[in-house]
Write a structure and sequence with these properties.
The chain has about 55 residues and is an all-alpha fold. Helices cover about 85% and strands about 0% of the residues. It has 1 helix and no strands. About 0% of the residues are buried.
């Protein structure tokens, strides 16, 4: 009856569920602030180009 105490399958399922939740949460956050991140990156690129004289 050792297979009843084997929790490797349950741990794997737990990691899969947690990973999926993290992926969905990350996607939702990026959707919410994606425009702001894009604006920040564009401003940073412009600043570096101006700094380097490009």
């Amino acid at each position: 009856m050792g297979f009843l105490r084997d929790e490797r399958g349950a741990e794997f399922v737990e990691w899969v569920v947690v990973t999926l939740i993290m992926i969905v949460a990350t996607f939702a956050i990026l959707q919410a602030v994606g425009g702001e991140i894009s604006a920040f990156v564009e401003a940073a690129i412009t600043w570096v180009r101006n700094l380097l004289g490009l």
